[in-house]
Amino acid sequence: MMISTKGRYALRFLIDVAENQSDGFVPLKDVAARQEISEKYLEIVVKELVKGGLLDALRGKGGGYRLNRPPEEYSVKAMIERMEGPLAPVACLE
After folding, report:
1. CA distance 36 to 32
2. Model confidence over 57-86: pLDDT tens digits?
3. Cα(20)–Cα(26) distance, rounded to whole angstroms?
4. Cα(83)–Cα(52) distance, integer angstroms
5. In angstroms, what CA-CA distances link 72 with 18, 69, 76, 93?
6. Smallest Cα–Cα separation from 33: which of 23, 20, 24?
7. Does the predicted TM-score (pTM) go above 0.90?
8. 3-state secondary structure the chain
9. DSSP β-bridge partners for residue 67
10. How far is CA 64 from the centre of its chain?
């Protein structure tokens, strides 16, 4: 199975946030700079992650994103399925 750019960027974003959230919320622009990903593209990806319940968001000064549970409770499968849909090769295996 091929993972799309959105799926790869979502994983990179979540890993970066997990590594850097010790100070609180992590600004999107900081992650974009560290990962060398367009902020505009990351905004699209992050919107899906927040909607899927994988991240908390805070707007305004001091805002950004953080994981809403401990990093060890996240699975790569859940992250990829959020961005790509079910991983089953055929519908009967879902």
Report:
1. 5
2. 999 888 899 999 999 998 888 888 888 887
3. 7
4. 9
5. 10, 8, 11, 27
6. 20
7. no
8. CCCCHHHHHHHHHHHHHHHHHHHCCECHHHHHHHHCCCHHHHHHHHHHHHHCCCEEEECCCCCEEEECCCHHHCCHHHHHHHHHCCCCCCHHHC
9. 55
10. 12
**11-44 pLDDT, tens per residue?**
999 999 999 988 789 999 999 999 999 999 999 9
* Tokens at 93, concatenated: 């295996």
Q: Please give the Cα distance from 92 to 89 (Å, whole number).
A: 9
Structure tokens at 88: 């089953």
- Location of structure tokens 């790869």: 8
In single-letter form, the type of residue at position 4 comes to S
